[in-house]
Amino acid sequence: MNRAEKYFRYLNPFTLFAPGRTKEILNVNPVTNLKRKDAEEIVITVYDYNETTLEENKLHRIQESFPYLQNNKVSWINIDGLRQKDVNDVCEHFGIHSLIAEDILSCSQRPKMDEVDDILYCLLNMLYFNERTQSVEQEQVSIVLGKNYVITFQEDPKRDVFDPIRDKLQMHNSKFRQRQADYLCYAMLDLIIDNYFFVMEKLGDCLEVVEEEVIRRSNTRSLARINHLRKELIVLKRNIAPVRDLIGGIIRSESDLLDDRTTKYFKDVHDHITQAYDLSENYRDLMISMQDLYISNVNLRMNEVMKVMAIVTCLMAPATVIGGIFGMNFDVIPTAHNQWGFYTAVGFMLFIPVLMLFLFKRRGWF
Predict the structure, then answer these.
(1) What range does the domain containing 347 cover?
(2) Considering the entire predicted model, what is its pTM?
(3) What are the tens digits of pLDDT across the range 32-49?
(4) Edge to edge, what strands does the sheet with 112-116 contain?
(5) Would you call 127 exposed, middle or buried from its count of C-beta atoms within 10 A (0-12, 13-18, 19+)?
């Protein structure tokens, strides 16, 4: 976005407060069964590993991932792009319940964790910060943990936050190669939650800029930016709050898929998401304070204007009174026919306002 485009949108009153973004954020009806469009292309990547070996394969068909179910190694099957038939085939072959398949294909689902038929399922959103629009973007990711395998379903094949995992899998002495699939699931959740802090850091920078702008000059553009950031904080909080319950459910779980040694790592993730939730609450309080500051500045500026107008009115009152008295239509008016009458009246019109200014200043009224 160039400089001209950045400021041109403030000239359009219909786009100033972005009502479409409000509808996008809040208009989610869980009763309505939204139809997800099948992805035009899918990218299937498999990491099959143990302590000594690692195989990275890119598959062309979803059926090529089926043999990894009976594999003695740990398999990470990552599917970028969702197609209903492919998701149903994978869930049917790996024994994943149909309700989980529906959640994978759902749109705008609330983050949650389910345990169904020896399968541990996590659904949450990866968050990204768009520098151009200064908005929070979200991508739904589903993580299915089974015995010796993890299957991840993503919407966008061009971006995710799992590159550090891919790099560490290349290392022979990494913990990923020595642990089971539950540790891989922990690492994925940890990376997604750590990326929340990056998004919040970007929003925090925007909040500081807006706060400084509100303090210096409170105008319609400042109010528009406050409104915009308030909506982005709603997106942030809607994604962070349920994830805390998700991690808590994993910690309380007694599933055989979770090793006791991995529980402490999930507790660390729970501490991170709790900290992220507290930080989002702080941002919310800061946003409310900024709204109050904006209203206070507008009222203060209005009071200053009214004070100046009141002072001008008071200073003009003596001249109005004197002019009204000597402008009455009577035959006999004192000093009316005196050669110094006019100058005397004008002198009083100037002297009295000057005296009033001196008294006002002495009392500290301005």
Answers:
(1) 327-363
(2) 0.79
(3) 556 678 888 889 999 999
(4) 54-59, 43-49, 74-80, 149-154, 135-146, 119-130, 112-116
(5) buried
pLDDT category, 25, cuts 50, 70, 90?
A: low
Pseudo-torsion of CA 303, 308, 309, 311, nearest 10°?
Answer: 120
Burial of 154 per CB tally in 10 Å (0-12, 13-18, 19+): buried
Note the maximum CA span of the chain: 120
Q: Say yes or no: 246 and 340 in one domain.
A: no
Question: How long, in residues, is the chain?
Answer: 366
Residue of 43, 21, 11, 326 whose CA lies nearest to 160: 43
A 10 A CB-CB count for 274 gives 14
Judge if 107 and 254 occupy the same domain.
Answer: yes
What gap in Å lies between CA 11 and CA 362, rounded to an integer?
Answer: 45
Per-residue pLDDT of 305-335, as tens digits, reads: 888 888 888 888 888 888 888 788 777 777 7
Q: Is 25 helix (H, G, I), strand (E, B) or coil?
A: helix
Q: Which of 295, 297, 249 is nearest to 273 (CA)?
A: 249
Considering the domain architecture, whether residues 84 and 45 belong to the same structural domain is answered as yes
For the chain, the domain total comes to 2
Residue 18 domain-assigned?
Answer: no
